[in-house]
Every structure is written in C-alpha cells, then in structure tokens.
Amino acid sequence: MSKRLSGILLAAGLLGLAALMFLQTFKVRNFPGTRFGAEIWSRAILICLGVLALVLLVQALRHRALTLRSSAIGIFVGVLPAAGVSISNLIAYDQAKKNSKTPERFGKGSEEGIIAPESANNATMGGALMVLVALGDPRGCGGGGGACGAAGA
After folding, report:
1. Rounded distance between C-alpha atoms, residue 143 and residue 141, angstroms
2. Residue 3 belongs to what H/E stretch?
3. Chain center to CA of 7
4. What is the reported pLDDT for 35?
5. What phi-psi label fits residue 82: left (phi over 0), alpha (psi between -120 and 50 degrees) or beta?
6. Rounded to an integer, what distance in angstroms lies between the CA atom of residue 47 and that of residue 43?
7. pTM over 0.70
8. Rounded to whole angstroms, how far apart are CA atoms 122 and 24?
C-alpha cells in the first residue's frame, strides 16, 4: 500500500515541482489566467502528465501477460453484438483474480485488479468498431449509443 501511495505522491510532487521550475525560470510575476501564465502552466502540466504516463506504462509492461489477456477478452466481447463494456470488465476482473498468485489482494487496490478491467474496457471499443466498420452496424457499440454508435449514425 505504501509503495502505491508513494507513487501517487511522487506524481503529484513532480507536477508541482515542474510548475515551480517553469515559474522560476521565466520569472513570471503575473498570475495564471493571463495569457503568458496560462501557457506556462499548461506546459508544466503537460510535462508532468507525460511523466505520469511513463510511470503507468512501466506498470502495465510489468503485467504485460495480464494486459494482453484482458485486451483479448475486451476485443472478443466488443465484437459480440449488444455486449457492452461492463461485461468485458467483469470477465477480465474475474479471470485476473483466478489467475493471480495473490487473489486475496483484489478489492484492496491491487494493481492487477485495476489493470485487467481497464485493459478490457479500452479494447472493447476496438472490437465494437470492427463490427461497425465491417458491417456498418452500430449495435456492436452498445445498442447504437456511445461514441462509436454516434459515428455510425
């Protein structure tokens, strides 16, 4: 738990540190909201988000077998007509828990318990878009609703 918490605190600290470094470097005297201040803050936030994305990518690569398995589940469920994201999330979470070496950590912030449903969630829309492109049928995107259903309408 403390390792996960320290990673979150590190990311938040890097965000603040980058913002302070930009402000000190350019000797900004005006407040955020003015044009120059807003540009500085947006650059600082983008740099910190990039660092955070790299940290999350490293975590996903540590569990690459789980990520690939959950993504495959998401694509398969996405191709099924009228099957939605919630079904793929539940199946991926269940399979991750069954295949985990430490299933007792699930429900308490386990990395595996977060990575599996999120991978399946992202892959489900890809599977639904395959149906939409191949058949022109938006039902694969959750009954015609959602982002890809609106594109097919």
Report:
1. 6
2. helix 2-25
3. 16
4. 57
5. left
6. 6
7. no
8. 39
